[in-house]
Specification:
By secondary structure, the chain is of the alpha/beta class. Helix content is 37%, strand content 14%. Bound molecules: pyridoxal-5'-phosphate.
């Protein structure tokens, strides 16, 4: 474990690395194994069979655990991680309180696999002051802040306290913020879940997820679910993600700085509506985000006059890739309403700033907006 007194940028470089041993690699390669050599008592080894455990997972889990401040269990995707928190806990008659504007995949999981089986789902918008009141009688509270894609922010500590007072555990989807921007377990949450397909791995080439649990017994339950659901990550993906963790601070710092500069420029334009970036002082979420987050992220959202204009903007970008997802080194954007299901305008664009030269990103976005405006 990296010395906890080291600063964050140092800890991401060192997290989860083994003790230095003469002749060993800094981060040894992935272990590929279905069965491991194993005789006798099943309790005598951590590594018996590849669905139960793998040393490559152990190293990355301990690295993420250092950053999140809890026990981490990896899953094959962010959705597998979300499902591992939601599905085994909730039974017919239970009440789940969740944001009406959280990630659409999680909402669809709630609708199709929980609500249809008798779990009462109370969906309340993230920024709705009535969220705390909806918690009364909850069996589990799911939060996401900032929300995807609207970038609204809720007061995590306040809602976590309200949930605990009502006897409900709380899980926070921390994908947008990353553990460098926000630590839900420190704010009192029971679970911090994230898709590591985004910033954590950061190169747009891996699908992976994890849950960090405050209580080691809860982490054991998640491991038990993973064993039985078989929602396991591949060792190579996990190794790549661990390797990418070393640059997380640099990637996020660069992307956040560019996003902030871009948001300022976009907010000054008169052809865009509703430019959202929690780092903008004028943003409705700014005050809360500044209290709760240590970085404002690298996603900027804005709305063009129509879906057609937004499509024209995307087609006019030379650098910005049109793609779903976010948090990678490549700047990308999409017209989010193409998916349906979110309460957003047809011309709403979610733009994820990457690590290219800031001037190139800003120039490209502005020239594409100019082209869209001139149509
Ligand atoms: C906020 C959020 N949570 C969870 C997920 C699901 O993650 P994955 O795609 O790794 O399954 C996503 C994916 O976009 C997301 O944006």
């Amino acid at each position: 474990m990296a010395d906890p007194s080291f600063r964050e940028a140092t800890r991401v470089v060192r997290a989860g690395l083994p003790e230095a041993e003469q002749g060993s690699a800094f981060l040894g390669g992935p272990t590929f194994a279905a069965p491991f050599h194993f005789r006798g008592d099943p309790a005598s080894s951590d590594y018996v069979y590849g669905r139960y455990g793998n040393p490559t997972w152990t190293a990355y889990q301990s690295a993420l655990g250092e950053l999140e401040g809890g026990d981490v269990v990896l899953f094959s995707s962010g959705m597998a991680a979300a499902a591992a928190v939601l599905l085994p806990r909730l039974r017919p008659g239970d009440v789940l309180v969740a944001p009406a504007d959280c990630y659409m995949g999680v909402r669809s999981l709630i609708r199709r696999h929980l609500a249809e089986r008798g779990v009462e789902a109370r969906l309340v918008p993230t920024a709705d002051p009535g969220f705390a009141a909806a918690i009364e009688g909850a069996s589990l509270v799911w939060l996401e802040s900032p929300s995807n894609p609207g970038l609204d922010v809720c007061d995590l500590r306040q809602l976590i306290d309200a949930a605990h007072a009502a006897g409900a555990p709380v899980a926070v989807d921390n994908t947008f913020a990353t553990p460098l921007g926000q630590r839900p377990l420190e704010l009192g949450a029971d679970f911090s879940m994230a898709s590591a397909s985004k910033y954590l791995s950061g190169h747009a080439d891996i699908v992976l997820g994890y849950v960090a649990a405050r209580d080691p017994a809860e982490a054991e339950r998640l491991v038990d679910w993973r064993i039985h659901a078989g929602a396991i990550p591949g060792p190579f993906e996990v190794w790549l993600a661990h390797r990418s963790l070393a640059t997380l601070d640099m990637r996020v710092a660069r992307a956040c700085a560019t996003a902030s500069a871009l948001a300022e420029r976009l907010a000054a334009r008169d052809d865009l509506g509703n430019v959202r970036y929690p780092g903008l002082e004028s943003d409705p979420a700014h005050e809360l985000a500044a209290r709760q987050m240590s970085r404002f992220g690298s996603i900027v959202c804005f709305t063009l006059e129509s879906g057609e204009r937004a499509e024209h903007f995307l087609a006019s970008c030379r650098l910005v890739n049109e793609a779903t997802s976010f948090g990678g080194v490549h700047t990308s954007a999409e017209r989010r309403a193409r998916w349906g299901g979110d309460d957003i305008a047809e011309g709403f664009v979610r733009l994820s700033v990457g690590c290219e030269d800031p001037a190139d990103v800003i120039t490209d976005v502005e020239q594409a907006l100019d082209q869209a405006a001139s149509r």
